Amino acid sequence: KQEVTQIPAALSVPEGENLVLNCSFTDSAIYNLQWFRQDPGKGLTSLLLIQSSQREQTSGRLNASLDKSSGRSTLYIAASQPGDSATYLCAVLDSNYQLIWGAGTKLIIKP
Amino acid sequence: KAGVTQTPRYLIKTRGQQVTLSCSPISGHRSVSWYQQTPGQGLQFLFEYFSETQRNKGNFPGRFSGRQFSNSRSEMNVSTLELGDSALYLCASSLVGLAGGNNEQFFGPGTRLTVL
Q1: For residue B65, which of A16, A17, A104, B54 sits 20 to 30 Å off, Cα-Cα?
Q2: Neighbours of B68 (CB within 10 A)
Q3: Distance CA B65, CA B54 (A)
Q4: Which of B26, B33, B38, B45 to mutate to test the interface with A (most CBs of A within 10 A)?
Q5: In 3-state terms, what secondary structure has residue A83?
């Protein structure tokens, strides 16, 4: 059974810092991995999608990497801003075509 | 282009009642997936519909059901509500669905269901 873990559960950093969020999964048989952000009381916004054959994806200040063999992904946020404060979730599309989710990392960027 | 819409946004029901939630996908998207989000279990996949057919189903009891109409709008029904069904219910739409090549999911704002 696929399990997705995100570490840390919460993170508070001063504005301007670069930071890394971690996501690990137990079964390497995935089709892709997605990173989302969720703002309080709102739905999810897709940030980056990495296909299983890819190693990384970039969008603006965000860079996500995927190491399928080791079951790990990282989301790198450069030059963090207060507007980046949110909960970040990763999800893998497993061999049954179901999205399996991590519990999320709650990120607070202090001005 | 309008995003994914969900109605109602908030709902309060009592145990034993049933509820129907609605999701309208982005125009042109044929896949709608439903998820339950609770503080204890996090996000869990309920089911996916594609072109009016249920394509996949998560590990939820039969009280949870859904359907999709010809215009791709989808409804989710929960019968005989239990306290544990209190959750944020999210739907997501995508062009070709979870089994497609580029299956980026676009989420609605969710329906907050409270069961008393």
Answers
A1: A104
A2: 23
A3: 10
A4: B45
A5: helix
